[in-house]
Amino acid sequence: MADMAKFEEEISKLKTLEKDREKYFSSRQEMEMRLTESKNVKAELDLMDSDSKVYKLMGPVLVRQDLEEARSTVEKRLEFIESEIKRVEASITDVNKKSIEQRDKVMNMQKAFQMMATQAQQQAAQKK
Q1: What would the pLDDT profile of 21-59 be if each residue is shown by its tens digit?
Q2: Burial of 58 (0-12, 13-18, 19+ CB in 10 A)
Q3: Where are the domains of the chain?
Q4: Cα(68)–Cα(45) distance, rounded to whole angstroms?
Q5: CA distance 35 to 53
Q6: What is the Cα–Cα distance from 38 to 32, expressed in whole angstroms?
Q7: Where would you find the membrane-spanning parts of this chain?
């Protein structure tokens, strides 16, 4: 039955879309955590006096860093994370749209199969 193979293929596509959506949600959640962490770092840096000492962890070593350089780095990180969140959210929107379309397609195929089964039962009952 080619129709059944097509139906299974469409279900497989739907499952793939749902896995992709979960992956994007997970990615967005991770980005949100990084954003919160970076905002906290920025808030701490903003509280510091201009003569405060700032250290950056580079591998196993703490290296002194200029306060303005640290602020700039954190600001760039915030911008990057925010742009990544927007990109991931656009992907989520896209995959949600595709999932809805695919789900509708699968449901329509399922309805068609049910109608065919009902018709076959009615024809079998009429032959008796």
Answers
A1: 999 999 999 999 999 999 999 999 999 998 899 999 999
A2: exposed
A3: 2-115
A4: 9
A5: 24
A6: 10
A7: none
